[in-house]
Amino acid sequence: MDVWFPHVPLALAVGVAGTLSLLPAIRHLAAEYLHLNLGRLFSALTPISGHLPPLILSGVPTAIVGALQVLIALGMLGRSRIAWLSALGMTTAQLVLTLAHTSGPILNSGTVSIVALLIALVLARYSFSRSSLAAGTLFALGSVLVLMIYGLLGSLLLGAGFAPPITNIPSAFYFVTVTMSTVGYGDIVPKSNEARLFVVSLIVLGLTVFATALTAVIGPVLQSRLNSTLGPRRRKLKRVNHFIISGSGALARNTARELTRRGEPVVAIVEDEDVPDFPDAEMVVGDPTELDTLREAGGQHARAILALSDDDSENAFVILAVHELGTDAKKVAAVSARKNLERVRRVHPDMILAAPVFGSEALAMALTEEKIDGDWLLSRFLDVRPTNATS
Predict the structure, then answer these.
(1) What is the Cα gyration radius of the chain?
(2) What is the number of other CB atoms lying within 10 angstroms of the CB of residue 21?
(3) Rounded to an integer, what distance in angstroms lies between the CA atom of residue 151 and that of residue 148?
């Protein structure tokens, strides 16, 4: 369940909530304009009076929140921390807009579902821990683009409420850029109450989006720098007579924890820097089957190199790379499938850890009350080559 829960259901819920927020604006736009002719639609975007058009009262701010929610849902699929924070903020904004537009009882199906989504997001906060520069940059660009569209649309719809009036896209783009950056030259000033309220919403949303976007892009870089400088797991150890572990599964992490608990130095090789950290172990990001990665981890001077990935073929290739490295380190490989046991033996590791392979056999013997010899059991779980064996 860790592969898809809870981030996938929450991402779907946020995406559905965003889609539902878009529906009223889409429905209103289609009913008012699209069933007539495109000329009427163009006229709706051309400000001819200072009155607030019905379209902007009928869901445009809610539609902007919905569009952002759909964008955020994509980031939540990757367990992005910034996407979770944004989902929390956008869902809160959606709740406020829903309450403001509700004329009947406050406790209805819409508000209850939004509150339930908020509670679920808060409870799942520890499941969104990845800080990716690429995801943060994509979210930042998408948020700025959606906000810019909102600003252009509102400026054109309410153009007659400004002095001088905003009558074309270049003027609207200039006004939105100046307003969102809080520069405010004063050459275009809102005069009507509707235009002033729109400018207030544009400033508030602009500050929020820009601050969030800046955090999304710079945050992961600063966090990586602080971890490399202050984090105890990133300290450089003397890579001599140490243990090297490749793999990122439960077996690799538990072995690293037990070795470090006994005061042994451990270097963990992982292929993705976003994998769960190894407690008190130095981490090297790279391909464990590459000689350069093994040299970076100090493979020439290691006491033992343990290939503990969940993929048996990767473990075999790691052992082959260690042989090519020409080190005297003890070579240990894990095997999780019985059919791969003989294949892994052919790469001549010093020890094969085959607990998942023979665990069922030992359990069956225990349940049928067969006598289990300790030496036999150990030899089945740990296939150790004789010290005088040759390759």
Answers:
(1) 30
(2) 26
(3) 5
Q: Report CA-CA distances (Å) from 24 to 31, 58, 71, 293.
A: 10, 7, 18, 55
Distances (CA, A) of 169 to 24, 63, 147, 197, 256: 25, 21, 15, 20, 60
Length of the chain: 391
Would you call 282 helix, strand, or coil by DSSP?
strand
Q: Is the pTM of this model over 0.70?
A: no
- DSSP state for residue 335 in the 8-state scheme: -
- Out of 3.40.190.10, 3.40.50.970, 3.40.50.1980, 3.40.50.720, the CATH code matching 236-384 is 3.40.50.720
pLDDT digits (tens, 9 = 90+) for 344-356: 888 888 888 877 6
- CA separation for the pair 382, 354 (Å, rounded): 6
Decide: residue 92, CB within 10 A, 0-12 exposed, 13-18 middle, 19+ buried.
Answer: middle
